[in-house]
Design a protein that fits this description.
Elements lengths: L2 H13 L2 H8 L3 H15 L4 E4 L2 E4 L1 H29 L3 E7 L1 H7 L1 H10 L3 E7 L2 H10 L4 E6 L7 E15 L11 E2 L7 E5 L4 H12 L5 E6 L2 H9 L5 E4 H4 L8 E6 L4 E9 L6 H22 L1
Parallel strand pairs: 3-4, 3-5, 7-11, 8-9
Antiparallel strand pairs: 1-2, 5-12, 6-10, 6-11, 6-12
Length: 302
């Protein structure tokens, strides 16, 4: 067996599909099917149980995939370390950002990094915080920004950089627009416009409402905070959004009301995997982000 065969095996196991694995690896399905068949013949075991179009790892296959993943991780770490030695300050970084976060916190960091390291490329992947966390854990992202706490905090290094709370936004003629503050229970008869289920705030808002004694009536879900704001302005419902996002809104189109009883916190942090090799580029980006975000936090508190 070689590294290429192990990569094919792990990808089929991850995606539970020969077709999807072939597409992800940019090869043909017959090629990947033949490779897996050759591995089974070489090892004298069946790696996948095939039931129609569905495939699942056998017990033996699960053992092989676990060991294959360890070998691939070691190989990737070795390759990364050698690349750093060869290229020093060249490379690329894969960063996951929730759509509402990037424009608010990172343009200055991105600009400083590019000015200092113009040969390093950055690929940004915009997804909800839950998806970003999964992708960092699985290795398809080097680092990401998520809503804290994470599901698996023990496997990540975490740099928290903002702690705010959610506010209520309503259209100007809404019954609560003149309120100095509002309790969550007062919203039980309202129609909610919230982020999609791959966003951490989706579950957090629903759980907070349930804790207040009601199931929220969700009328729309979106991945874009500006669309949510526009739908609120159009009178389609109400929304709960972080303070940073609320500051970006047109006060003539929506009214921001502090939410109390309970206060719903919104904490953000940069995460990366503890046991994975970090390239020079990723380490340097984290260093600049730490410094820049800490400076901004200090300036805003003055």
């Amino acid at each position: 067996m070689d590294i290429r065969q192990l990569q094919y095996l792990v990808e089929v196991a991850r995606l539970h599909s020969f077709t999807k694995a072939a597409e992800a690896l940019f090869i043909t399905q017959p090629t990947i099917s033949k490779t897996i068949r050759m591995m089974e013949e070489e090892l004298g075991i069946v790696l996948f149980a095939r039931q129609g179009r569905s495939i699942e790892l056998t017990d033996a296959g699960r053992i092989i995939v676990d060991r294959a993943q360890e070998i691939l991780n070691s190989f990737q770490n070795l390759s990364g370390e050698l690349d750093d030695l060869r290229n020093l300050k060249r490379g690329h970084i894969r960063i996951g950002l929730p759509p509402m976060v990037g424009s608010s916190f990172f343009p200055k960091v991105m600009g400083q990094f590019h000015e200092r390291y113009p040969e390093i490329t950055i690929r940004l992947f915009e997804d909800g915080a839950k998806k970003v966390e999964i992708d960092v854990q699985e290795g398809s992202l080097d680092l990401g920004v998520v809503v804290l706490p994470t599901v698996s905090e023990d496997i990540f290094e975490i740099f928290p950089f903002v702690e705010e709370k959610l506010n209520l936004i309503v259209p100007p003629l809404h019954r609560l627009a003149e309120s100095g503050e509002v309790g969550l229970q007062e919203l039980q008869d309202e129609f909610f416009i919230i982020f999609r289920e791959d966003f951490a705030l989706h579950d957090r808002i629903i759980k907070a409402c349930q804790g207040a004694g009601f199931q929220p009536k969700i009328i729309y879900e979106s991945s874009q905070w500006d669309l949510i704001s526009e739908m609120v302005a159009a009178g389609l419902g109400i929304a709960l959004l972080p303070e940073t996002i609320c500051r970006e809104m047109d006060p003539e189109r929506v009214v921001i009301v502090p939410l109390v009883d309970p206060i719903i916190p919104w904490k953000l942090g940069i995460i990366w995997k503890k046991d994975r090799y970090m390239s020079f580029a990723a380490r340097e980006w984290i260093r600049l982000a730490r410094r820049g975000l800490q400076q901004e936090k200090g300036d805003s508190s003055m």
